[in-house]
Amino acid sequence: MQHLSTTLNGVGWARALMGVLALVVLAWLADVVVKRVFLRLIRRVAAHTRSTWDDHVINRKVFDRIAHIAPAVVTYMGIAWALGARLPITDLEAGAASAPAMLLVLVRRVSLAFIVLTTAMATSAFLAAVDDIYRESYTEAANRPIKGYLQVVTIFVYVAAGIVTVAILADESPLLFLSGLGALTAVLMLVFKDTILSLVASVQIMSNDMIRLGDWIAMPQAHADGDVIDIALHTVKVQNWDKTISTVPTHKFISESFKNWRGMSESGGRRIKRALHLDMNSIRFLSEQEISDLSRYELLRGYMRDKREELTKANERRGDEDTIPERRRLTNAGTFRAYVFEYLKAHPHIHDGMTLLVRQLEPGPEGLPLELYCFSNDTAWASYEAIQADIFDHLIAILPEFGLRTFQQPSGSDFRRWADAEAPAPSGSSDSGT
User: Fold this and answer.
1) Which residue has the higher pLDDT, 321 or 1?
2) 235 and 247 in contact (C-beta within 8 Å)?
3) Would the pTM of this model clear 0.70, i.e. be above it?
4) Where do runs of H (alpha helix) occur along 282-380?
């Protein structure tokens, strides 16, 4: 230690200043050479290769971060030469009293700490490149993303780099700081609570295959309804149908309920569940002429034939002369329900392997609901809406053929028409003769 102090104290300030300036120039030259020669060479080599993994590494600027190490290494190696001290590289004399000796120690520590942090940043960029390569190379990447796990590794890398950096600057062993972390476990658990929850949630999400990239999910409490575009350690990004982005904490998918529409997409059928409200005042028995006319419809021919035979057999029973026998007759609502069922069965865009129902719901103030419950064989949103609209357009238009009307709340024009109908006719002028 005395040798270091004596050597550095004997160096003139002009010599030290010139040495430091020369070291700065050397560090700058090293930075220029690495960036303009080394990086350009790597980019040219990567551009001429058939594989794409090197392109992802370059796009994530892994080598750009590694290049920043060059001037730090030159500074670390050359500071002793710049100050005129001849010592081993690893000899950090923290107890030296002279200003040049303190400068030597400070520059070396800062340079070494910078190298550690830069290495951590390069490692983080490389892990991001690994995720890009994985997504591009494996078809199961959308079902089994690894971004969350790589982010956990990144956190450990930065934590380790932080501990080593502090140890270098304080000239203490990293084990000393690690031993002190045991007492801070409770604090660390509190600070990294969300990270721990997200890590556990990510493992459960991946193992149970709860969400994938591209899934349509709906989580009303988080105002999320759209496609999953990113699954990270802490957050899941959902692009809503209005093109806004909802960011949902990953652990919310474990603690709260949400709807995943993937099953609908994979099944090949999308449910149609909508009701026509029939005006109950228009429901009545069919006359023989109406039965004959409706029997001409292709979809109703078999139904009307079978019903006629069934009703004929049921009505053969005669009652007493003083009683009116109970006769079964066809209604326009029942016949229309049969028509809707046959129409859906024959429709080319209705899935024939899934549930198909046409049922009456409980009558109410809005008429008699006739609900269609079926599945389209096209799950695309636009196609699904078009199929559903075409079906109900046709059914509403054909209702008058059955003598039925849809129920609709009266509007202003209805009230005006009724008022005009009830208004007294204007009295005509009488001709008086003379």
Assistant:
1) 321
2) yes
3) no
4) 288-294, 301-314, 332-346
